[in-house]
Design goal:
10 helices; about 75% helix; mainly alpha; about 220 residues; binds fe (ii) ion; about 0% strand
Length: about 220
């Protein structure tokens, strides 16, 4: 797996690696999405688009929760404030996309992805902060990988352009969360824990889920 320092090299390197070396390594993910998920996309695209709107809302809520939990960390607060704003903007963009397509937004029963990942978060600080930030970062990374796949897969230029346009910000969010985790533990400890959590995340993704979701 590619080391963090490569991922943290900056936006221009990110784009270059995205194009030339594939998404998986730079996002610290340990598995790539399979044809099984793309099959769910083909059969349940509307439901997955609705779930995407929920994902953006949940991403904003996660950042707001982290802001409140670690409000004495000024850097974290500044970064979370920006992520909350960006995720809410994404939420509105997906809602507008749904409206253009006459897809009614509605509540959906959640899949198991977030619940299973959050079970891995340790109870005591500072490990809890490290895990919350890294889990948030892995969710951003998986979103990023799936947006990239969707952009290439769908035979719909509006959707393809939309998902390609979201790649950069979600990738940057991944970087931000990993960087912030290093405020709570050494770089070595963060790197080791990221590998552990990414391994668990890969197992959840490889197992899949019967409900068609952005992270099923
Ligand atoms: Fe987002
Ligand atoms: Fe994000």
């Amino acid at each position: 797996m590619r080391v963090l320092s490569t991922w943290l090299a900056g936006r221009h390197n990110l784009v270059r690696f995205y194009v030339t070396q594939g998404t998986i390594h730079v996002l610290n993910l340990q598995t790539s999405s399979s044809a099984r998920w793309l099959n769910q996309v083909d059969r349940h695209l509307e439901e997955i688009l609705i779930d995407h709107a929920h994902c953006e809302h949940k991403a904003a809520a996660t950042a707001m929760s982290l802001l409140g939990a670690y409000i004495e960390n000024q850097t974290l607060c500044e970064e979370m404030t920006q992520i909350v704003a960006e995720e809410l903007e994404h939420f509105h963009l997906v809602q507008a996309l749904l409206k253009r397509r006459n897809i009614a937004f509605r509540k959906l029963p959640p899949g198991n992805y977030g619940r299973e990942l959050n079970k891995l978060v340790r109870g005591n600080e500072p490990g809890r902060a490290v895990d919350r930030l890294l889990v948030a970062g892995l969710i951003e990374a998986r979103s990023c990988e799936r947006f990239s796949l969707l952009a290439k897969h769908v035979d719909d230029s509006e959707l393809a352009d939309f998902y390609a346009s979201l790649f950069e910000s979600e990738a940057r969010h991944h970087t931000t969360y990993v960087k912030l985790a290093r405020d709570f533990a050494s770089e070595t400890a963060v790197k080791q824990r990221l590998i552990e959590l990414a391994t668990a995340e890969a197992a959840i993704i490889d197992a899949g889920h019967m409900l068609p979701r952005m992270h099923s």
